[in-house]
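General statements about sequence and structure are easier to judge against a single worked case. No coordinates are needed to read the tokens, only the vocabulary itself. The sequence in question and its structure tokens are set out directly beneath this paragraph.
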Amino acid sequence: MKWWMNRFDTEVQSKNAVTNNVGSDQPDQNVSPKVSQGTQDQDAYIDYRKLHYKNTIPDNRVLVFLTGFCMGMVFFYLSGGKDASAGSLLDSEHLTLMQNFEVNRLGLFEYVMGLRLKQLLFGTICALSSIAGLMAYSIMGWCGFEIGLIIFTLVYQYGMKGILLTFSMFLPQGICYGILFLVLFRKYWESDKKCCHNEVTIKSEMQHQRMEQIKTFFLVFLLFISGILCEVYINPEIMRKIALLFP
């Protein structure tokens, strides 16, 4: 009988302990830290995946440019490499003339200035239009198409030296013009949305907004003049030295 009463008291104490744990508002100390730690680890892993994909996925501008580049390559192979303009422009006869060609700096400056002014005007109109984003990516894709077509045409004619000849056609003025293009369409790149969102609150005052416009204007002007000077005074010398590599 004594043994039965002790067993009954033990069962009652167990039931009371379970009832107290269920009705208590305090979490179980043995389970909560593990669950909380697991949730934090999961959130940290999700943040890591977002950051990893953000750093590994190429920028949309690069993707559009590479798409145009591949289309230029496909067009070259479909045309058989016979109708590419770069082949007729830089054939062996023209390269021989470039080796001892004296550049008329003034005439070249006037020609380049007139040509680049028209292109700058066209780019400014596109940047101010309602379809500026579409125009920006279209221009980027077209540039990739032309560069791809020129590279494969010159490589087809001159081998690996054609790559050097292609770079000599666009450097160093291509760097200035590329930065100028990015500045004109800076509001429409997806990578700049966060920056533009932060600037919206700062540029609420009209005076600050005008200062930003003035800075942009001078930056565009500086890049434009730098590109023209490089194209007139530096690029011809680079092309002449590269032309010496071709017999």
